[in-house]
Specification:
By secondary structure, this protein is of the alpha/beta class. It has two domains: 42 residues, Monooxygenase; 155 residues, Alpha-Beta Horseshoe (Leucine-rich repeat, LRR (right-handed beta-alpha superhelix)). Helices cover 40% and strands 12% of the residues. The protein has nine helices and six strands. The chain is globular and about 65 Å long.
């Protein structure tokens, strides 16, 4: 029996064991396998480990998406979490590309994936409050929001959770240096049913370009 003689259900099961790129390359062999690749039920879970993966045409975004994870750990990506005033021109150029990729992608998620249940972002230093708030507004079924080392997150996200996160049960804002103790206290008081984790947040040095007289000392402290 040839692979293409199997029914759609069996083919979907086989495809579920393949990574994104293998699914795409396999789908190019015939129309039947292309239909399997384009079946939304194949794409309920998406994981990305580098910015370049977001620009590839080897996955499908649809209302079937339930869980999304974007976790970046490479040394290049870590540059994105450095404050802009400390970056070289070369570093700013890298960060600009990353910023466009991730923000455009999250904009698509909010518009095309209303049934999202879980979102995890780690090391995404250019994601701003706006895109997370947009997802909270347009993905009402969201139950878990995990943000780790996302430098631009502020108390505005916490405020949005109190307004739009009616189904949220888990919130992580770990190592997010612009989250304050006041914001954490407010969300814990207003959303008692939400488990809130904020490891090292509110205890880190927030973004604020220093005066010329102390920029060197502050920069050294940041790096340490």
């Amino acid at each position: 029996m040839q692979l293409t003689e199997l029914n759609q259900e069996c083919l979907l099961h086989i495809f579920s064991f393949l990574d994104k790129e293998t699914r795409r390359s396999t789908s190019l062999t015939c129309h039947k396998l292309r239909d399997v690749f384009l079946d939304p039920t194949l794409w309920t879970l998406l994981n990305f480990s580098s910015p370049s993966e977001l620009g590839k045409n080897n996955f499908l975004l649809s209302p079937a998406l339930r869980s999304l994870s974007i976790c970046w750990y490479s040394s290049r990506v870590k540059i994105c979490n450095i404050e802009d005033w400390m970056k070289s021109n070369f570093q700013r150029d890298i960060c600009s590309k990353h910023e466009n990729l991730i923000n455009n992608f999250l904009n698509q998620i909010s518009n095309r994936c209303p049934n999202l249940v879980s979102l995890t972002l780690s090391g995404c230093g250019h994601v701003t409050d706006y895109y997370i708030i947009q997802i909270l507004q347009k993905c009402p079924k969201l139950k878990a929001l995990k943000l780790e080392n996302c430098a631009r997150m502020t108390d505005k996200v916490l405020e949005a959770v109190t307004i739009h996160g009616r189904n949220l049960r888990t919130l992580h804002v770990d190592f997010c240096r612009n989250i304050t103790q006041v914001g954490l206290q407010t969300i814990r008081e207003k959303c008692r049913s939400v488990f809130v984790s904020a490891e090292r947040s509110a205890g880190m040095i927030p973004d604020n370009k220093p005066d010329e007289t102390d920029w060197l000392g502050r920069g050294m402290k940041k790096r340490l």
